[in-house]
Write a structure and sequence with these properties.
- Its main location: membrane.
- It is found in: Membrane.
- Residues 259-388 form the O-antigen ligase-related domain.
- By secondary structure, the chain is mostly helical.
- 67% of the residues lie in helices and 1% in strands.
- The chain has helices at residues 7-13, 40-57, 59-75, 101-116, 118-124, 129-141, 147-173, 178-198, 209-213, 225-241, 247-267, 270-289, 296-321, 328-341, 352-356, 361-364, 372-380, 382-404, 411-429, 436-459, and strands at 80-82, 99-100.
- The chain has a two-stranded antiparallel sheet.
- It is globular, with a radius of gyration of 27 Å.
- Mean pLDDT is 85; it is low at 7-12 and 14-33.
Length: 465
Amino acid sequence: MTTRLNPSEVLAQRNVDPAVVPADAASGPHSSGRHRGPSVITQLTSAGRALVEGLRSDPDQRIVAVLAVLVASLGLAPIALAPSEVVIYSGVATGTPMLYTYTIAIVAAVVVIGIQTRRQLARAFFPWVPFLGWMLLFAVLAWDSSLRTVSGLVHFSLVTIVFAIGATAERADRRNSFLLWAFAAVAWLQLFAIMMAVIGFPLRRIAGQQALDVLGRATGLTSHPGELAKLLFFCGMCALTLPQKTVRQRWVAWTTLGAVFLGVSLTQSRSVLAAVVSMILILVVLEFVTGRWQKKYFVVLGITGLLGLVSVPWLIERFTADPEGGDRGHLLQVAFDVIREHPWAGVGPNSYVAIAGASDPLTASGVPVHNVLLLSAAELGIIGALLLWLPFAMAATTAIHSVFRVRTAELAPRVLVSALPGLVLIGMTGWGLMQGPYFLMFALIAGYFYARSRYVRVASGYGRD
C-alpha cells in the first residue's frame, strides 16, 4: 500500500521549513506556476495611497503637484468663475477684473512654494522689482483707476508671479521634469479635442462672427486658432526638453512632437508654423555643431518635412487671400502715433484699444497693433516696456551663455535658444502673446527654463545659485 504525503509532510521529513520554500514549489506537481497580478483597482488604490503619502512627507512633491494643477488650468481649462456676464473687450486682459481657475491655481502655488522655499521665491522676484516699481509709480501718478486699468494691473502682476513660480519650482522639479510632462499631456488633450471637432463632436463651440472667421481652422479647447497655435508651440518646447534616457521616453518625446506639429498645421497659423520649423532646424544645427548629433534627429527632420508638405495647400491659400497680412501696416502707424503722444507713461495697462480706438475705428473694433513690443510700449511707456521684457531677456542671455560658453549637455538651454527666433516672430506678428493665460504660460515656461539654464551655468562654475 502506497501512502501519499502532502507537501508539508515531505518537507518535514527533509527537515525543511515550509515558510522558506517558494510558493510554486509547494503548490504540487499539477500547478502551472502562474499567479494573477493585482487588479487595476488595486494598483490605482496603491498609487493613490503612495501619492497621498508622498504629498504628506515630501515637500518637493507638493510643489510638483501644484505646478501640475497650474499647467492644467492654464492649458486646458482657463475658465472664468465670476462674474458670469462681462462686456467683451479686446485687450491683454478682460475689461473688468475676473476670477479664473488659473488665478486660484496661482494663489495655491504661491502658498505651497512660499511655505517650503520662501527665500528662493523672494529671490525669483528680483528681476521684476524695477517693473513692479514702475507700475506702482504710474498707477499712482498717471493712469486712471478704471476697472479696465485695474484688470490690466492684475494681469501684469500675475505674469511676474508666474515667472517666479516657474523659476522657484524648477529646483523641486529638476529630477522628474513634471512640468515638461504636464505640457506634453496638454498637447495630446488639445489634439484629442481637435479630432473630436473633426468628427462632429466639438468639446468647445465658438459662436457669433468669430465662428465665421475661424471656419476650417482648428481651435481645440481655446477660442481662436492663434491661441491654440501658441499653446502648442510652448508644448513643443517642452516636448523637445523631455528626458530621453530610455526607448519609451524617446518615443513619448517624438510622438508628442508629432502631435504638436499636426495641431499647429491644423490651426493654419503661418507665424507659429514658421516658428516651430525654425526651432527644430536651429536645434538640429546646434546638436550638429556641438558634436551631439544622433541618428534620432533624422526622425525629427522627417517629421518637420512632413509637416511642411501637409501645410503647403493652406499656406498657398492663405498667402493668396492675404499676401500682406491684412491691415498690419495701418495698425503699426496707429501704435507709433500713440507712443509718440505718450512716450513715458503710455495709455495705461490694458487700455490701448479703448484709448487708441477713440480716433481709429479699426482699433475700436477690437484689433490692436500686432506687435507685442509696440503694444507694451503704448500701454506702459517705452521704459516700462523695456522693464517688462527684461526678465525674459535675462532668461534668453542665460541660455545663450550656457550653450555657447559653458557648452552644456542640458537640453533646456539649447531648446530655449532654438526657440528664440520663433518667439520673436510670434511676438512681432501678433499680440496674443501678451493676452490672458498665454502670457502667463509664456512667463511660467520662461521662468522654468531660466532657472534650469542658470543651474547649468552655476554647476559649471559660473556664478552662484
